[in-house]
Amino acid sequence: MASTPVDDTPQGEPLVYVYEAPVRLWHWVNATAITLLFVTGYLIGSPPPSLNGEPSAHYLFGWIRFIHFSCGQIMAVGIIFRFYWSFVGNYFSREIIRPPVLSRKFWKGVMLETKSYALAEHSSRRYVGHNPLAILSMHVLFVWVAVFMVVTGLALYGEGEGPGWIHTVFTGPVLLLFGNNSLTVHTWHHFGMWAMVIFVLVHIYAAVREDILSREAIITSMISGWRKARKVTPID
Ligand code: HEM
Ligand code: HEM
């Protein structure tokens, strides 16, 4: 494992610096942006009743769309940055972005963790970062879905904006992929929201549960970066 423990708990267990500051900053900026994207995206799909008065005066839907597009762009830049960091950051920064899918040991770990979650087998394995099953689920259910939301979101944005580079790079190819039907892109972007909502609910439940049951710093590790390392199993 590339990362070296550099501190100890009072009980003499090594502490490992798991999540570097850029990953932590990205996590919380991304989580805030996605929460605002849920609220504003839901309102775009199920708009509130019209208000009295001149729309340009209260600008209600204008603000909803403005917040959605701003957070969407923050999320898009964040994803690009997070990919970049998986190349220059520590061992743990690669885990969910570029999992070791060619390693047999990784897939064995995925199977063993799946059995353990299904209560079919007891797992005594310890991982400092994410376990192989968590890596695989975050890779598919978060990374792929996030990229899908950014690509379809930018395609819809380029459609509203008109000719320009966003239209050329995203709107044209995405519309082609969805049978030249903008409504289908809206619908899939909408489905993506519910996939992401399910991910976030399960993710927060798992983080809180693991924090209590593993008696290790799980939630605070995404704040301070440090985690206690007992005897550890490498993932690949
Ligand atoms: C987790 C991230 C996101 C969620 C949950 C989300 C959710 C939604 C939802 C539910 C809609 C309404 C779709 C409909 O029923 O017609 C929508 C529309 C839209 N979203 Fe997103 N979105 C996300 C990311 C993005 C990103 C990254 C962008 C890119 C800038 C974006 C741009 C748009 C645009 C342009 C529309 C259409 C607005 C309109 O027609 O007025 N979204 N979004
Ligand atoms: C929209 C909301 C959220 C999203 C999309 C999200 C997404 C993610 C992702 C993608 C990771 C992996 C980070 C990496 O390895 O690069 C992660 C890790 C983590 N998140 Fe979140 N998160 C959200 C909210 C939260 C909240 C509210 C909490 C606290 C209760 C939380 C606690 C954590 C913790 C503790 C980890 C590290 C887990 C571990 O090492 O097993 N997250 N999150």
TrEMBL record:
GO MF entry, a single one: heme binding
Pfam families for this protein: Ni_hydr_CYTB
GO cellular component, one term: plasma membrane
Membrane topology according to the record: Multi-pass membrane protein
Stored SUPFAM superfamilies: Transmembrane di-heme cytochromes
Keyword check for RNA-binding: no
Recorded superkingdom: Bacteria
Gene3D superfamilies, A to Z: Transmembrane di-heme cytochromes, Chain C (1.20.950.20)
Keyword entries, A-Z: Cell membrane, Electron transport, Heme, Iron, Membrane, Metal-binding, Transmembrane, Transmembrane helix, Transport
Domain Cytochrome b561 bacterial/Ni-hydrogenase: 18-225
Iron found in the keyword field: yes
TM spans (from-to): 25-45, 66-85, 133-157, 191-208
InterPro entries per UniProt: Cyt_b561_bac/Ni-Hgenase, Di-haem_cyt_TM, Hydrogenase_cytochrome, Ni-dep_Hydgase_cyt-B
GO biological process, one term: respiratory electron transport chain
Subcellular location: Cell membrane
Family recorded in the similarity comment: Belongs to the HupC/HyaC/HydC family.
Protein name, as recorded: HupC protein
